[in-house]
């Protein structure tokens, strides 16, 4: 399975999955259709699946146009997103599996950003490592805002990701990394891994390079929203109860202007 990252809108990423053996494709969170159609034309591939993580317009905005071109494609989304994702025909819950080509993905139910959010995890197969498509739940250096969920829900969702192998690649849906890392540095300035990551990410963005994908291991070392049980993060929050640590740090990020 090859993964093609498409930069769209102001800071979104759309991911086209391509099985070169069967010459079929799937797309994760198509914000818009045109770049996806162009990539499919370049690959000469048939779209067979749309994997949506949640209902926000910058994740499902391309569904209708893609279905017009590929009416036999299957549209996947969370069971609690019923009537919120255009053309959705499969309603997934945590623990379900989906298949694309020769890869099976486990579905995680990860409420917090929205109450219906899901993620797709393709475990390692042969020489291909694990791939996590997490929508707006986990970002490089950060996490999504809590529009419909609670801090406790988001913590539990991110804790599911913390259990994945460290080399799992994290395909998040936005290029928010530099802003997230500025906040992370403000919270945990003495973290050498974080300092190094900030330098690396800054150079990458200056070159116009994407910082996505990340890895679970890197997030566990540098992302404050994956580190609620680390003393430095608890000290920054002024409390050591996990969901309250998370809530305090998330509130600080919401008001961060650095």
From TrEMBL:
Zn(2+) 2 binds at residues 58-59, 136, 174. InterPro entries: Clx_II_MBL, Glyoxalase_II_hydrolase, HAGH_C, Hydroxyacylglutathione_Hdrlase, Metallo-B-lactamas, RibonucZ/Hydroxyglut_hydro. It comes from the Bacteria. Keywords: Hydrolase, Metal-binding, Zinc. Coiled coil: none annotated. The keyword Hydrolase applies. Zn(2+) 1 binds at residues 54, 56, 113, 136. Its cofactor is Zn(2+). Binds 2 Zn(2+) ions per subunit. It catalyses: an S-(2-hydroxyacyl)glutathione + H2O = a 2-hydroxy carboxylate + glutathione + H(+). GO terms for molecular function: hydroxyacylglutathione hydrolase activity. HAMAP family: Glyoxalase_2 (MF_01374). Monomer. Belongs to the metallo-beta-lactamase superfamily. Glyoxalase II family. This is Hydroxyacylglutathione hydrolase. It comes from Pseudanabaena mucicola FACHB-723.
């Amino acid at each position: 399975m090859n993964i093609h990252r498409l930069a769209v809108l102001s800071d979104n990423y759309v991911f086209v999955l391509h099985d070169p053996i069967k010459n079929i494709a799937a797309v994760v969170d198509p914000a818009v259709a045109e770049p996806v159609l162009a990539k499919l034309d370049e690959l000469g591939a048939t779209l067979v699946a749309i994997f949506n993580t949640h209902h926000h317009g910058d994740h499902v905005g391309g569904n209708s146009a893609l279905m017009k071109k590929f009416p036999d494609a299957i549209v996947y989304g969370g069971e609690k997103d019923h009537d919120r994702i255009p053309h959705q025909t499969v309603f997934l819950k945590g623990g379900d599996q989906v298949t694309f080509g020769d890869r099976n993905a486990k579905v995680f139910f990860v409420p917090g950003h929205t109450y219906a959010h899901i993620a797709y995890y393709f475990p390692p197969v042969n020489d291909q490592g694990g791939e996590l498509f997490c929508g707006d739940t986990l970002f490089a250096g950060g996490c999504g805002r809590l529009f419909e969920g609670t801090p406790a829900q988001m913590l539990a969702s991110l804790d599911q990701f913390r259990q994945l192998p460290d080399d799992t690649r994290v395909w998040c849906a936005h290029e928010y990394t530099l802003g997230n890392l500025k906040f992370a540095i403000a919270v945990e300035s003495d973290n050498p891994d974080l300092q190094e990551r900030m330098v690396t990410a800054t150079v990458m963005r200056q070159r116009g390079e994407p910082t996505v994908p990340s890895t679970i291991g890197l997030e566990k070392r540098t992302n404050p929203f994956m580190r609620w049980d680390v003393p430095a993060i608890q000290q920054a929050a002024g409390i050591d109860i996990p969901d309250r640590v998370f809530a305090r740090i998330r509130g600080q990020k919401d008001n961060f202007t650095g």
